[in-house]
């Protein structure tokens, strides 16, 4: 008998007097909680998103679709970025004015190669106003998860208002749970026991979010 069989046997014996729960999954947990807090309009929801993003130490920019290419080029130039990782499905117009070298997201790219890249520019799946959270789902305009975790500088473009929701429950209604979801609330950071904050530990040290209106 293997160790696995012994462990499973002990589990079965421990559960022998536990009744079978036939409650369907959809009914097992109460879903009558509030889906959104307060009554905000579109503009107020976007303002809340910007406020909470800034509270998490993300840098927030605003522009129109017509100005997006110039805005991104200016942000990369101000950062001094010479190389930028680009997801395969990113709109090529977004970086048409950038002077940095564009590095395509490739399956064979190693973490060491990505670590030498200055910045990454992606779109997002949805942005949550109440928590100041950006969600990526690995779509072609966002690329693989690793390209947003290894480079030290991440620029994320959010289309306003269509990609902005008020709450986490509303975001879950839009997201596919089978996709590789990455939830980002500000730049990567951690604190030690003395609450000394260190940024850039598990991902980008700097997160810049561009809220783009038509």
UniProtKB/TrEMBL annotation:
Positions of the LUD domain: 47-212
Domain of life: Bacteria
PANTHER family, per database record: LACTATE UTILIZATION PROTEIN C (PTHR43682:SF1)
Protein name: LUD domain-containing protein
